[in-house]
Amino acid sequence: MSLLKLIGVLLDYPRDELWEHGPELLAACDDPALAPARQRQLRGFVQALLDSDPLDAQARWLGSFDRGRSMSLLLFEHIHGESRDRGQAMVDLVDTYRRNGFELDARELPDYLPLLLEFLAHRPQAEARDWLHHVGHIAGMLAARAAERELPHAVLLEILVEAGDGKVNLALLRQRASEEARDDTREAMDRLWEEEAVRFGSDAPAQDCAPPRRSPARPSHPEVQP
């Protein structure tokens, strides 16, 4: 299993099948591209996940990535929000996938970070590094917020920043994250629902730009065809 595939699997919703592949996940942590300290951190993350109850791990994932928008794993959420530009960006990304033999499940959004990492795991190393460089600022901010919230996933996101040449000032992003108002509290989510009135006609956002709600029933990702 490649490093990018491993990080994508670990960032994704932890389906029950994950516990069946523990030895493979642990073996993949010894990737020579990682410094020994990172290998130990990654192995520690995997072992802690395997030692946890699946239902508890799934509940923690939902609480970490499915509450509020600041920790969303949908990349275009952080770039375009709910603007109409997001729809075209989705179309362009799907076209990129298809041109490289990567077909998506109809229920999956193309900008979902674990899905992008699965795609990049099958691309040439230089191309994958270039993609990671371009999304490094998003991965860096997610890493900073995860660290601020004491989420173990912070190490996964930091590894992605480093894989994209690491030209992101994580210390500065952590400072910024520490000053942000949390958007995953019950009070913050209640305010968000109150502020987002239903809009019709020309004022309504495009349907494909609406932020999705992740479901615990995670579909399997398709493989890249050779």
From TrEMBL:
Q: Please give a single GO biological process term from the UniProt record.
A: chaperone-mediated protein complex assembly
Q: Which domain of life is it from?
A: Bacteria
Q: Which InterPro entries match?
A: DMSO/NO3_reduct_chaperone, NO3_reductase_chaperone_NarJ, TorD-like_sf
Against Gene3D superfamilies, the record matches this protein to: TorD-like
The GO terms describing molecular function are: metallochaperone activity; unfolded protein binding
PANTHER family associated with the record: NITRATE REDUCTASE MOLYBDENUM COFACTOR ASSEMBLY CHAPERONE (PTHR43680), NITRATE REDUCTASE MOLYBDENUM COFACTOR ASSEMBLY CHAPERONE NARJ (PTHR43680:SF2)
Looking up NCBIfam families in the UniProt record yields: narJ
Q: What is this protein called?
A: Respiratory nitrate reductase subunit delta
